[in-house]
Design a protein that fits this description.
Number of domains of chain B: 3
Oligomer: heterodimer
Largest sheet of chain B: 8 strands, antiparallel
Strand order of the largest sheet of chain A: 3-4-9-8-5-6-7
Number of domains of chain A: 2
Structural class of chain A: alpha/beta
CATH class of the largest domain in chain A: Alpha Beta
CATH architecture of the largest domain in chain A: 3-Layer(aba) Sandwich
Number of helices of chain B: 29
CATH topology of the largest domain in chain A: Rossmann fold
Number of strands of chain B: 14
Distance between the termini of chain A: 21 Å
Order of helices and strands of chain A: EHEHEHHEEHEHHHEHEHHE
Radius of gyration of chain A: 20 Å
């Protein structure tokens, strides 16, 4: 209803009258607001059956509950939520703080990586942000050490590195600005927009930043393919998945 | 920022000062070099060769500014082992190999190597080296040459040697032992005597001069042979020409053997750690707050070591004591290091035969003192005040180093530290899971203030401190920084120790460095040393007040001022004074101040130099905060020292029509015209008619003190009176100026 979309509940297990009645009961208050719902019963192994439904029903957004941090064993073997995230072909919203009372989402952080998916992520962030009546949206430009490419040894190289960073920051700013310019005005008008350059490890530091900035929602580019090796040597999205800083929306 | 032309100009302007400073340093380097080489059982001249090669090469190739290079204390332990297991010629080969490794470390950008070791473990290792030096040389100092197997045996034999002294029958030995004891007394008492004529020559050089004079006294006046036994005179100093013609042959024979490489690795490890620690410490002393390029320094040191090894010298390392002497004597760039090498060459060329007049026990007393300083009980007490677990780390490293060897020792220290951290957190996984994560976030806060914010996650200890350091190093030191540990579960002593170093550097360069988010950690009992580290000495002064303190309290009541006995927290209001640029304020206490805190009399404890050249000074000062601007200047009485400074490039500013003032006072400052205008008749008369004080202005406040010791109650009253009248004269001067304009 918020996004004017249809809710599809996926239940892994056999269908039964009892379960349907329970779902109807839970969702009852929302029907008044005009919720359309579709309950799918899909028996079998959770990960594959959910993914199958996603494909079959052409779902745009998958909402999953997740634990804040995985323990050591699960990390390498993978929990259900994360497995799905890694393999889903649609956007995924991972919720770490589900609550009966809706906590107002005030603060959205979105990545502004130099990546083809970024434009979409930023657009989605604006869309979701305005739909959730968020107050502030921060576009984080992550600039890696490799881009600065000056190792700091003494005062002279420090000065050079800072100049280079300033230049990179301006480049990033102008790139983001062109993206922001293409966002429809109605999504922009109630949101305070800020950009923040940060320097650090791509993917990881933005999670850290979201935590520092007390963001309520972090919007990120969806993951590409990742294998077991990527988990041993985590990069980008894997860092976020190991340690969810807040609710995360991955845009595909 | 500054155009190149002016830097060249500056270089030449500061050249006399640097040459002077290089001269003073060479006075220390000469006896220390001889002693350190001998302690390693290498011909004494090797120490000089090392200092010369180091000074000549590193001054051109290195990346630091005020450091002095030469033979290091730490090398004694490892070189001793190398010489006994490999022999002298193979040791030279090992030194050359270690030079290559250090060069490699430089190219691999391992300037951060020293950051990977817990600070207590490094302290333990240095203390062990100190004990090794002390243990071995103590016997020679008392003219009792021993050759024992382990360094520990030497330590255990000390009481025996002391009792043995009283049973010497050979008067030659008695005299030798006396020379040693006297030299040790000079080393111990020298820093306590603050006589400026005495202080012109460093203590080790006094020892050399006195022993040469002693020898000439017997030769020329008494006309009898030197009473000190022949065996205990310095030997093996070849004439200058021979040093160049008689290069040692290097024996690369045992290159394939295991002990050879053990030696190479321990030499490399100690040489690079000692150098890196010294570079870090000297950077803190540099009045201009420049940052050294540690990697470039490592490369230069490696190259110099290779050269030194081929010429018969030992490892070239950056040395803290000599560097701090350099800073204290206004050395400002590498030309000081270069000139120290040149002076050493001159000494050897002219006086190499005189050096054989030095008795060995006297020379070894210098090393005994050095060794004691490295392992002093004060150090142990300081570590204990940080925490019991630090003491455990310290002693583990110390003992393993003494019983086994250096590399095992430092590894044991690292291991114990990790175990302690894991036990305190009751979790190994906190470390294992997060060690590879890039746990530091730094960004420039966008908003009104534009300062840097650094947030650290998970844990921060010696294991991943380099990540934090990397980020902190990327911040210009004149900026404001906030380091937030609120998301960090554990912060260890090594990190806190280093951060307080950053705090000093930032504050001195006009920036601000704040650590936040540790309040919560205090509440949890599992982080004791993080917070204990912050206030290690509290509670020292508040208890029973001394007589002086009660009198001060009475004065305060009398004059309508406030009195506070305990240590002040803000020590940085003094940083801007020229006097403190190369000194470190340790503590300020016994403060008398008025209600607005613009007029303060206080006792201060500051230190000059570091390590064995470190001198703690306690004195009483008066600080007046003026609420208007005056020119920056320094005023002191004219004297002998100032003549020396004059020679080194400082200039006295003359005031017209006041010959008496010009003759008696010494006025320094950058802006000559403004100062001349500021010193009008009234002010000059005031200074002429009052007792001498050292008066210094930093633009908006005055610092006044007289002697380099704590003032008595009467003197405090006089100081107070002087300051009060000076303030009114300065205010009047300003009013007149305002009236004229």
């Amino acid at each position: 209803m918020l996004f004017e979309s249809k809710l599809i509940l996926i239940h892994v297990g056999d269908s039964s009258e009892e379960k349907t009645a329970k779902f109807q009961e839970i969702l009852a208050p929302f029907f008044i607001d005009g919720l359309t719902v579709d309950i799918v019963y899909e028996p079998g192994e959770p990960v594959t059956s959910i993914l199958k439904t996603v494909r079959k029903k052409k779902i745009d957004l998958l909402i999953l509950g997740a634990l804040k941090r995985e323990n050591f064993f699960k990390y390498y073997v993978g929990s259900i939520a994360r497995k799905i995230t890694r393999r889903a072909k649609c956007s995924v919203l991972l919720l770490i703080n589900p609550s009966v009372e809706r906590i107002k989402c005030k603060h959205v952080v979105v990545n502004g990586l130099k990546d083809e998916k970024t434009e979409q992520a930023i657009k989605a962030a604006f869309f979701v942000g305005s739909a959730l009546q968020a107050e502030q949206l921060i576009i984080v430009e992550e600039i890696t050490q490799q881009e600065v490419a000056i190792s700091i040894n003494d005062d002279k190289s420090l000065r050079r590195a800072n100049l280079k960073k300033e230049k990179l920051r301006r480049q990033e700013d102008s790139r983001i600005n062109t993206i922001v310019a293409s966002i429809p005005e109605k999504h922009k008008k109630d949101l305070a927009l800020r950009t923040q350059p940060i320097f650090g490890k791509r993917g990881y530091t933005i999670g850290h930043y979201a935590q520092v900035a007390r963001a309520d929602l972090l919007v990120m580019n969806g993951p590409g393919k990742s294998g077991f090796l990527d988990r041993l040597f985590p990069h980008d999205i894997e860092h976020i998945l190991t340690e969810l800083p807040t609710d995360v929306l991955l845009v595909q | 920022m500054s155009p190149k032309k002016s830097t060249i100009k500056e270089f030449f302007a500061s050249l006399p000062k640097n040459i002077f400073s290089g001269f003073v340093v060479s006075l220390i380097a000469l006896p220390l070099g001889l002693g350190l080489a001998m302690a390693s059982e290498i011909p004494p001249i090797a120490g000089i060769i090392t200092a010369v090669v180091g000074g000549l090469l590193v001054s051109f190739l290195g990346g630091s500014h005020v450091t002095i290079t030469g033979p290091g204390n730490g090398m004694v332990g490892v070189l001793l082992v190398a010489v006994t297991t490999l022999g002298l010629e193979a040791t030279y080969a090992a030194i050359v190999c270690s030079g290559i490794l250090i060069l490699l470390l430089g190219f691999l950008r391992m300037g951060k190597l020293a950051d990977f070791f817990p600070s207590s473990a490094i302290q333990g290792m240095l203390a062990a080296i100190g004990l090794i030096i002390l243990g071995k040389q103590f016997h020679i100092m008392l003219a009792n040459k021993l050759s024992l197997e382990r360094s520990l045996d030497y330590l255990l034999a000390i009481p025996e040697t002391i009792f043995g002294v009283f049973q010497y029958e050979n008067t030659g030995l008695v005299y030798a032992a006396l020379a040693g004891v006297l030299a040790l007394a000079i080393m111990v008492f020298y820093p306590r005597i603050r006589n400026k004529y005495l202080q012109l020559i460093p203590a080790p050089m006094w020892i050399v001069l006195l022993s040469i004079a002693f020898s000439y006294y017997f030769e020329l006046i008494v006309q009898s042979p030197n009473p000190i036994s022949e065996n205990y005179m310095l030997s093996g100093i070849p004439p200058a020409g021979e040093i160049i013609s008689q290069l040692p042959s290097l024996n690369f024979g045992p290159v394939g053997s295991f002990p050879f490489w053990i030696s190479v690795f321990s030499i490399t490890l100690i040489a690079s750690i000692e150098s890196l620690l010294s570079i870090k410490a000297v950077d803190k002393l540099d009045p201009q707050k420049r940052r050294s390029n540690a990697n470039r320094d490592l490369k230069a040191l490696g190259l110099a070591t290779i050269g030194s090894g081929f010429l018969g010298g030992i490892n070239v390392v950056t040395v803290i004591a000599r560097s701090s002497v350099n800073v204290n004597n206004a050395g400002s760039n590498q030309s000081a290091n270069f000139s120290h090498a040149i002076f050493l060459i001159i000494f050897i060329a002219l006086f190499s035969t005189q050096l054989t007049r030095i008795p060995m026990p006297a020379l070894m007393a210098i090393l005994v003192y050095t060794g004691y300083k490295l392992a002093s009980p004060k150090l142990v007490r300081r570590i204990f005040s940080v925490g019991k677990e630090q003491l455990l780390i310290f002693f583990t490293t110390l003992m393993v180093t003494l019983f086994v060897d250096l590399i095992t020792g430092i590894l044991a220290g690292v291991f114990v530290t990790f175990i302690i951290h894991a036990l305190m957190n009751k979790s190994v996984s906190l470390f294992l899971r997060n060690i590879l994560k890039p746990n530091v976030l730094m960004f420039k806060e966008i908003g009104t203030k534009n300062d840097y914010y650094v947030s650290v996650k998970h844990f921060c200890s010696f294991l991943n401190y380099y990540k934090l350091k990397q980020k902190l190093d990327a911040i210009p030191q004149s900026e404001d920084v906030v380091v937030d540990f609120s998301m960090c579960e554990f912060v260890d002593h090594t990190v806190m120790d280093n951060l307080s170093g950053y705090q000093d550097v930032f504050l001195k360069s006009g920036g601000h460095f704040e650590v936040i988010g540790l309040d919560l950690h205090g509440a949890e009992s599992k982080h004791p040393f993080a917070l204990r580290r912050l206030i290690p000495d509290l509670g020292l002064l508040q208890k029973n007040l001394t007589k002086r303190q009660t009198t001060l309290q009475e004065i305060a009541d009398d004059y309508g001022m406030h009195y506070e006995a305990k240590e002040a927290e803000d020590l940085h209001f003094l940083d801007k004074f020229h006097f403190f640029t190369s000194k470190k304020v340790e503590s300020i206490y016994n403060r008398l101040f008025n209600a607005e805190k613009t007029f303060k009399v206080f006792d201060i404890n500051y230190s000059e130099g570091a390590f064995i050249a470190k001198e703690n000074v306690r004195t009483t000062m008066l600080h007046i905060n003026l609420n208007h601007e005056i020119p920056e200047f320094t005023l002191d009485r004219e004297g002998f020292l100032e003549k020396v400074y004059l020679f080194a490039g400082y200039k006295d500013i003359p005031i017209e029509n006041h010959r008496d003032f010009n003759k008696r006072f010494y006025l320094l400052g950058e802006n000559t015209a403004v100062i001349q205008e500021f010193f009008d008749d009234d002010l000059v008369h005031f200074f002429e008619s009052n007792p001498y004080y050292h008066v210094e202005s930093n633009g908006d406040s005055l610092l006044i003190f007289s002697k380099e010791r704590i003032a008595g109650v009467k003197e405090i009253k006089a100081l107070y009176d002087f300051g009060k009248r000076l303030r009114s004269v300065v205010a009047a001067t300003r009013q007149v100026e305002a009236y004229h304009s």
